[in-house]
Amino acid sequence: MYLEHFGLNEPPFRITPHTDFFFEGANRGATLDALVYAITHDEGIVKVSGEVGSGKTMLCRVLMERLPDRVTIIYLANPSLSRDDILYAIADELRLDIPDNARSSVVMRALHDHLIKSYGEGRQVVVLIDEAHAMPTETLEEIRLLSNLETNHSKLLQLVLFGQPELNDILARPDMRQLKERITHNFGLEPLVREDISHYLDFRMRAAGYRGPSIFAPPALKLIEQSSLGLTRRINILADKALLAAFSAGSHQIGTKETQAAIRDCEFSDATYGGGRARGRTRSLWIVIALTILILAGATWLILSRTETGVPAMPAAAPAAPASAATATPPAGAEPAAPTTTSGPPASPQPNAAPPAAAEGTPPGSPPATPPLASLPPAAIPTTTPQPSGSAPNPVASPPANPSAVAAGSASAPVAAIAPTPGAKAEVNLAAPPPKQVKPKFGPLTRERLEAGQIWLQQLPDDHWFIQVFATDASQHAEVETLLRRLSSGKPEMNDIHVYYSELSGRPRLGVTYGNYPTRAAAAADIRELPKPLRANKPYPRKVARLR
After folding, report:
1. Is 346 inside a domain boundary?
2. What are 412-421's pLDDT values in tens digits?
3. 150-154 long-range contacts, Cβ below 8 Å, gap at least 24?
4. Does residue 407 lie within any of the structural domains?
5. pLDDT in tens, 25-37
6. What is the mean pLDDT of residues 196-224?
7. Model pTM?
8. Both 146 and 54 in a single domain?
9. Count of structural domains, the chain
10. Which domain, by its residues, includes 203?
């Protein structure tokens, strides 16, 4: 539905294991190489574990394609096979002629003979078992016995187990220790982190034919990471629904709104199968609770011990100094405080006045100590920041309750209440809305093709087609100017090239288009005839109605 809107050749986020969309990042590619090495170098039983939707089946399918031709592959997708059924299933995949009512020992003998024959021909046989965690215990025991099929130098049958984290719990049981000891390699598919999710989404979009800039904004990536828990299947579902939401809104950018709509439409389970992540969260919760109890117990013990020894548990807050504290008698030996005037404007300092005497013990040249505000009388505490001469007063101060008091020079009038002097510099209004964002200054060719593109778009019918040549953020307008400069010196004609500017996706973007065609087929056919600079960015047909 949204393929044409985003210029895609196929859906990018299908949950089926399409091997063309295998993402080799986040250690997936390294795990695949290690699996190929372990199988081709006779490394015994191999185990791959991961949460539901972490990409185990996709990895298994790609592994089947990457193994060399000399390896015979048996893929078992049914985990509920009994002990005898798994032998019949392997024999059936190898096309062995075995009677239906044959005993398991007969099947094992025939299987052993065939494996020896394959080994003599230089061939290997590998069994890939999906959903191994759901196998019965006796079937897992039969797998251990199959691993005993070997020569003096190498194994005759390679086994690879793919399963959820429950498989690790099963193998940790005492009765499974013999099978666990046979496993030579253990691989785990970890969830993707935010940076890996960004690369994963871009990779699948481009694998599906997308050629523009990344459409998933950072807030969208954060929401996808939180909701998907880094599991690729969930990421695919959320991304597909977000693309559909953007298409419905006519947007080319996936932001918070589209991602939240996708999350609301999904019903993911809060629990993760296997209990690995759930157990981790539960364990962390108990650790936090235990630490909280220990802290509270320690605080209680400290308070009780202080109380028993007569030490106050918490320092009491100092009582507020009364208004008459300024007239209190100073301590013996201390100099009396200088009297303060409670009425009239403060006296201006004399130019030749000597600085106040430094307190005893103060080093020469150090600034005089400032008494704490609590020890000063209310009249001595300034209510506003002193302003330089001729500057505007503090605009935050409240107007005086009695304007006439200012003219009378009363001390009850705050200094900041004086009206602004005519001609003083106006203060900046912080509540004013920010200025509107200005378009960047485009180059001359970009401006020319922008103007021509507006006229071109107005004249075209909605059912016509054009070729989308290039698209980028408006901040990268220098790239558009460089492209136009390269095209202006030769073919094609510049009259067929247009530039459009759009803010529909939430941020300014520039696009370069070419041509005008009545049908999609005509536009697609002309792509092959475009010059190399226009074909460098994988152009694709697009409908005029979509651009509008």
Report:
1. no
2. 444 343 444 4
3. 151/116, 151/119, 154/42, 154/119
4. no
5. 988 999 999 999 9
6. 94
7. 0.53
8. yes
9. 3
10. 3-13+192-265
